[in-house]
Q: What sequence folds into this?
């Protein structure tokens, strides 16, 4: 089965991707593959001041190349951002994706995300232009979308996606309408119609909570994408059941990776040259572990708390431990808490 780890802004990043890939490679079923994504990056900001958004492009070098996702405001900046990615990050990414999915009001106010579905003729023109630019390079091109704006809009969205499929290498579809946001059942009739009419492969994405469910869906669709349930269970892409200590080890590794990439990124931020930087490899990040000051407060530790809470959904622990995590700021303090969870 072809599995996909969905992009999730503020959640997925170089560390979550690396950890999920590592677990996958250790425990995967023989036939399975895993594709990862970067979260949507604002094309305008990237063109104007790449350092505002360049963190989205940070990725740890592995055998796999994530798909880089863009959204936009000005069409010329979207094309320019795609060109910059092609020229400077072709070694880091395999694919460039346009996001017509995002339901956030702030995003939509500016004509981005799902709002593009309110302007389908213009959006299709943009997709065609982008497709020409990207597919003329060594990267591939995809579009992420949803089941339309609301139930009444589904027929139009179906025709739109079929048209889009003539210009893309695949389409990922989150099967809810804009009106549904994250709630309600998926409309399988709609999805099957898209699959029947589409000229390119379809990634199915909606509320998958376990590996077996993904396996079932993979009978009908080309690729299967999992988002939220992979945050607290990065093993969802495998059939493997970990021990408690293995779960804690993943938390520790995640914490370390966040701190070392913080060091690495801070260092490179000062020397970024013309829209490009060298991606770190894992050995380089391991070598930075020596420089972690166990008693210093790091930004990454505060940021790690949100991941810790997700992981703890899957680990028995008391309310006090959750409360303590909120107060921890240093590496040592966080390790002490994690050790309390470990079985001897
Ligand atoms: C917090 C959050 C941030 C997201 N950010 C992105 C994003 O940057 N790009 C994108 O294409 N989808 C984004 N998504 C949507 C997910 O990729 C996925 O389509 C959605 O969560 C449905 O899959 P799931 O039911 O398996 O979670 C986001 C979802 C969440 C919950």
A:
């Amino acid at each position: 089965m072809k599995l996909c780890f969905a992009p999730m802004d503020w959640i997925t990043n170089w560390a979550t991707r690396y950890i999920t890939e590592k677990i996958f490679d250790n425990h995967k079923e023989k036939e399975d593959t895993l594709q990862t994504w970067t979260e949507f990056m604002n094309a305008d900001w990237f063109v104007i001041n790449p350092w505002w958004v360049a963190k989205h492009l940070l990725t740890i070098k592995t055998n796999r190349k994530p798909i880089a996702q863009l959204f936009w405001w000005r069409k010329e900046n979207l094309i320019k951002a795609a060109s910059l990615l092609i020229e400077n990050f072709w070694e880091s990414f395999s694919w460039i994706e346009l996001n017509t999915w995002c339901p956030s009001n702030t995003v939509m106010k500016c004509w981005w995300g799902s709002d593009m579905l309110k302007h389908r003729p213009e959006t299709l023109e943009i997709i065609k232009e982008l497709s020409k630019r990207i597919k003329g390079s060594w990267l591939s091109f995809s579009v992420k979308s949803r089941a339309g704006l609301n139930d009444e809009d589904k027929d139009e969205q179906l025709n739109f996606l079929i048209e889009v499929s003539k210009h893309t290498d695949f389409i990922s579809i989150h099967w809810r309408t804009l009106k549904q946001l994250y709630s309600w059942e998926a409309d399988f009739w709609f999805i099957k119609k898209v699959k029947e009419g589409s000229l390119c492969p379809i990634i199915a994405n909606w509320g998958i909570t376990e590996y077996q469910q993904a396996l079932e869906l993979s009978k009908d669709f080309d690729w299967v994408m999992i988002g939220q349930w992979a945050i607290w269970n990065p093993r969802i892409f495998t059939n493997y059941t970990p021990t408690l200590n293995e779960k804690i080890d993943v938390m520790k590794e995640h914490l370390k990776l966040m701190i070392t990439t913080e060091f690495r990124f801070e260092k490179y931020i000062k020397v970024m040259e013309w829209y490009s930087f060298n991606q770190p490899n894992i050995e380089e990040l391991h070598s930075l572990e020596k420089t972690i000051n166990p008693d210093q407060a790091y930004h990454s530790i505060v940021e790690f708390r949100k991941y810790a809470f997700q992981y703890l959904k899957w680990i028995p622990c008391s309310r006090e431990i959750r409360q303590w995590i909120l107060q921890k700021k240093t590496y040592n303090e966080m390790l002490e808490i994690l050790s309390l969870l470990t079985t001897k």
